[in-house]
Structures are given as structure tokens and as C-alpha cells.
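This follows on from our talk about sequence and fold. Please put the record directly below this note.
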Amino acid sequence: MPDKTVPQKVTADYAKISPTAVLVSALRAKYTNMPYAREIYRAVKQITTPLLYTGTGSILSRLARFAPQSMSRVAFIESRYLSVNTLLRNLGDSYAVVEIAAGLSARGLEWAGSKSLYVETDLPDMISIKQQVFDKVLHEKGITQSRNHHFCPLNALDFSDWDRLGQRFFSDGKTNIAVVHEGLASYLSRAEKEKLRDNIGRFFRKYASKGTWITPDFYPYENARKTWILRLIQRRLERKTRTKMHHFVNRDEVMEFFKLGEFQASSRDGSFIFDQVTCISKVPLNREKIRQALSRYQVYQAEYTA
């Protein structure tokens, strides 16, 4: 069995755990058929305090009833997960995967049978919760934990954490590494995004044979605030997380952002995985509106070139 990097019993202050991770987990469980979504949310409710999830279901139901366009957010949440998975699978087992701000993602469970190394990271409180959730789902489904799967606390804006990660798993510098995240960068300022980019580049330069960065997080301002309901959701999230969300102006600005960090990036809009989306039968939106919602977002794959 892989070694445990976090305690089994959590004594952390749950108020510090990101409420958005639980909200996303609830959306996945209620409105999609994504793998392990219901099992994860069930485990979360058994582990965490009611503060993190009480009322989530009723809030979502009211939104679906009175503002059906808000459910395009569900399609985005599912599509960003599927698009990252697709690009990762295209890389094959020749790349180790480091997922940062993994939250309550099921990707580590989906990669359980992979031959490649998979390291899930997040802030210490959140990764502790994730370890417990993961263990509960493994037990419920009768899955044996892969020896290639690990958990590791990491603050993505602190390079000393990246250094510890590299020393532990990639000290020979001979491994191809893919760094992935979904949702993290939405809550970062422009300066913090640049710090994240530079930390990832420095990590690749020091520890990777080849480095690839995959994320759907850099969507333009006009898309993030296209409708009144999206603006309302953003304001509520900003109050909840006490952050001011930063968005790029357009795709060209995103590509320049990557270039300045010595990354060569390409992108695809989210509609390329439309046929894989499972929320279509569960949200009050027709197929064309969902396709339009997905086309407004890009998933980026950036190769480190330095």
C-alpha cells in the first residue's frame, strides 16, 4: 500500500475548507452521472460538519426552477472535468500526473488502474478530507488502492511545497509530468496566477523531463459574466471565499500569459466533449443551449519550453 501522507482522523478547522469543493461535489452528484459522484458526496456528508453542505440541495433546486440558465454552470463543471480527462488520456501512461487543488475530484479514482504515478495535492485541511473520502469510496466499491496513487499537501503558490513534492517523487528529473487543475485559478488574482505559472515552470525545469500543464481555468471575462445569473453566482462566490475573481480579457491574453512563462499553449473549446456530457437529461436546458455554453470555454494544454 502507498504510504499515507495525511492523518486518518481530521482535527482541522472545517471553516477553512473551501465551500466551493463541496458545492461542486453536490452539483456532480445531483445533476450528472459522473463516475463516483454520488459516492463522494455521500462520504463528504458523513465526514464533514453540516456547515459545509446544509442547504446546498435546496439552493440548487430553487436555481433550477426559477433561473434555468444557471444550470449552464453544471454543464461547465462537467465539461471541464471531461476535457482534462481527455487530454490526459491522450498523453497515455508515459506521463506522471500531479493534480493541484484536487478538492473532491474523482480523477484519482478513475486513474486507479493506470500504470503511471498519480499525486493528488491540496491545502493540508482539504487533502485530509480527501484522504478520508477516498478511503470510504474505495471500501464501498471494493477497490484496492493503487500503489501509484498518493496524496500530498501543497500550496501551489509556495515553491517550497513544489520543491518537497519534486524531491519526494521526481528527484531523478527523468519523468514526464503533467500538472492539471480545474477551478483553482478562478480564485487567484493576476499576480497570483503569474506566481502559479512561474512555480509550475520552475518545477518542470527542475524535476521534469517534459512538462505539460492542462487546465480549463483561464476563461475570458466576457464569458464568465455573460448573463445576470452568472454575475450573481460570481458575486456570491466572491463573498463566500473572500476573494475577488480575476478573468482574462480574451483568449489572446491567455496565450500571451502562457508565452511569458515560457509555455507554448494550444486550446480547444469545451464543445469537443459534448457527446460525453451526462447532465443533459437532468438540467432544464435543451441540447443546443448546453452546446453553446460549452463552446464559450477553453481547455488549455501548455508545453514547457525552457
User: Anything to note?
Assistant: The radius of gyration is 18 Å. The longest helix spans residues 72-91.
